[in-house]
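<instruction>
Derive structure tokens from the sequence
<data>
Labelled lines for chain and fold:
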Amino acid sequence: MVTNNSSDYSPTQYNVQTGGASGTLNNVAPSSTSGVPVISQGASSQPVFGTAVVAGGGTGDTSFTAYAVICGGTTTTGALQSIASVGSSGNVLTSNGAGALPTFQAAAGGSGFTTINIQTFTSSGTYTPTASMKYCIIECVGGGGGGGGTANTGVGRWSSGAGGGGGGYSRKFASSATIGASETVTIGAAGTAGSSGQNAGGSGGDTSVGTICIGKGATGGAGNDGSGSAISIGGAGGVAGTGDITFPGQQGQYSYASTSVFYPQGEGGSSYFGYGGRCAIATPGTNNAGQNYGGGGAGGSSYNQDGASAGSAGAKGVVIVTEYI
């Protein structure tokens, strides 16, 4: 039974009453901070308004760093902790091991990329990767072969030299580690035109980025003597080179001498990036060179004794490097 005394029946306004010793009541004064809970102090002490510990479903703390990540305490029941800094925009939360709070740090370099950059080489030089380049795709096309020339024809006859082949294509996926500080770039030269008469066109040169990626040059078309039914063989396309994907260029078109005019003949072979040159009809000296990069040159043409004709040059090669940064 609660005894009759002033402390039993005259509690302070807003205080919490609890049982006291010898059947009396006690007043527990509230916290001046709104929202603070009543916390047990054990079986032999009066409760108080205070901070709930982790074991009691609380945080064990009264404040945290604004916007900071909250982590566990140093023990399973220790007060929760906020990390020291909220980091900078774009930082990632990084573990510092089992005995330390994590921290925000700059993202480590990885396979992801944010920028694509293209370097194109139309002349030999040096490929130096753009800063922070992670991976790149290298494309190489070899030089196109030159078209063959033709000798003068007889009355009422048509003749042309054979077309040069198209340059071969190669593509290679490479990491920055594979490239290193730089690689030498070699652009395959265009095959020279076969001179007037039965003269073959020159072969195109190989295009390469070091030994990592190589596009092979094509061979030139054969010349034609303009007599009888002579047949001239087109230049072979550049063969498969070095790379993850590689395939040959198109063979140049054959040509022949005849009393009939057949069109087209003696056209240059095409490459991945360029068409072969077209052969003119009965107009010596106006045959078309290989187009863009790696196209084969057309053979020279002659009709009805209008004179010997030279072929046309092929097109030089190219290197295109697509960088992922």
Q: What stands out?
A: The mean pLDDT is 88. Residues 109-325 form one domain.
